[in-house]
Design brief:
Radius of gyration: 14 Å
CATH architecture: Alpha-Beta Complex
CATH topology: endopeptidase fold (from Nostoc punctiforme)
Shape: globular
Distance between the termini: 7 Å
CATH superfamily: endopeptidase domain like (from Nostoc punctiforme)
Number of helices: 4
Helix content: 25-40%
Strand order of the largest sheet: 3-8-4-5-6-7
Number of domains: 1
Structural class: alpha+beta
CATH class: Alpha Beta
C-alpha cells in the first residue's frame, strides 16, 4: 500500500520533464494531466482509463466538469481544509469555467505541476493558486 510520501516522491521524479500537451512520458514530456497519470502509473501500474484526445481550449468550449468527473471516478474527494501532501489539486482559471489544471501538493505551501511552455516544477502553493482551487482529491488506498 502506498503512502503520501510515495506520491510526493513519485511526483518529484517527474521534475524537469518538458511540457508537452497530451503527453505522459517521464523525462520526455507531459502536461498537467499527464503528470497525474504518470504518478498513478508509478504507484499503481496500469491507468484506470485512457483520456480522450483534448485540445488546449477544451474547458472553454463546454461547461462540463470533465476533469473533475474523472477525479470523482478514480480518486477520493477531499475537503480543501483537509488536504495534505500527495493530494491532487484541480484549478479553474475563471469562476464560470470548468477546472482545467492539475497539480500535486508536496507540502502545505508547495506543489508540483506541469508548467505550460516550460517543464514540471515544484512551486509555491501561493494565495493566487489557493484562490483558483476548485477540487481536491486523494489517490485511493493511501496510508
Amino acid at each position: 500500500m502506498a503512502t503520501a510520501d510515495d506520491i510526493v516522491a513519485a511526483a518529484r521524479g517527474w521534475t524537469g520533464t518538458p511540457y508537452r500537451h497530451q503527453a505522459s512520458v517521464k523525462g520526455v514530456g507531459c502536461d498537467c494531466l499527464g503528470l497525474v497519470r504518470g504518478v498513478w502509473r508509478d504507484i499503481y501500474g496500469v491507468e484506470p482509463e485512457t483520456p480522450p484526445p483534448y485540445g488546449p481550449g477544451w474547458a472553454e468550449s463546454s461547461s462540463e466538469e470533465r476533469f473533475a468527473a474523472a477525479g470523482f471516478r478514480h480518486l477520493v474527494p477531499v475537503n480543501a481544509d483537509e488536504m495534505q501532501p500527495g493530494d491532487v489539486l484541480l484549478f479553474r482559471w475563471r469562476p464560470h469555467l470548468p477546472a482545467k489544471h492539475a497539480a500535486i501538493l508536496t507540502a502545505p505551501t508547495r506543489m508540483i505541476h506541469a508548467h505550460d511552455g516550460l517543464a514540471v516544477c515544484e512551486v509555491t502553493f501561493s494565495a493566487w493558486w489557493r484562490d483558483h482551487l476548485a477540487f481536491v482529491f486523494r489517490f485511493p488506498d493511501i496510508t
